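# step 3/5: fold
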Amino acid sequence: MSIRLVVVDIDGTLLDDDLVLNPQLKRKVNELRCRDVGFTLATGRVFASARLLGEKLGLDLPLIANGGAVVQTVRGQSLSHLVLTPQLVIDALDHTESWPAQRYLLTRECIYAETGGHHAQNYGKRLGVSVKVVGDLKQLAAESITQLVIRISSQEAGDMSTSTERMFAGRLAVQQTMPHLIEFMHQDASKGKALSLLASALGLASEHIMAVGDGINDLDMLDVAGLGVLVGNADPRLWERADIVTKAHCDQGVIEALKSFVKMG
């Protein structure tokens, strides 16, 4: 299999819980470039956060950010920007108003919270993007919103995600992206659809693409790619959806995949 493009998730894949970028990865990205193999990122993070990593890695291909709602280069060339209508934002906020949860609205560049506190501060710190506390989130409904992110206990998230997904079917994509996170997005936004768009723009067939991830929101991206890889720390319940599961975890798993399937030393 001749891989011409590598697409990698960030949290739990490119980065572990320490959030430190492995210096080996930048060297590997440079090696890929010398072999005429492209490298980019696909993440649920806001584009502003993905751009920081893209700049550190010297990436020039469009990044997939905001869960697939944004496909854009670090220099600002946009392939896709899917936003929610103001009414859908308001409907989602109304539906979740009584939930025992913290709620955030995301655009390409910003994260907005209705309340502050250490969770909001940690969220912004983790992504390298400041969180703006605005109180009433509905006042931002017309501000090119890409996601409503709900932070809720993992005990409650599953049932709420399933029932809400049914309620908004055909209007919004609702997904439990992590045990404690539920996201509301444009119905056409996903990493897989964004990767298909990027591949078409680059003139690449799926068999020449390797996608690497660790979570449930990476699975459709793995399905699009000719070679779908899960790193070793991925939930074992997801392993059957991958072509390959690496022995190593997180960044070391990415490096393992690159060495094995892009024929790198």
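# step 4/5: annotate
The CA atoms of residues 114 and 134 lie 5 Å apart.
# step 5/5: archive (pending)
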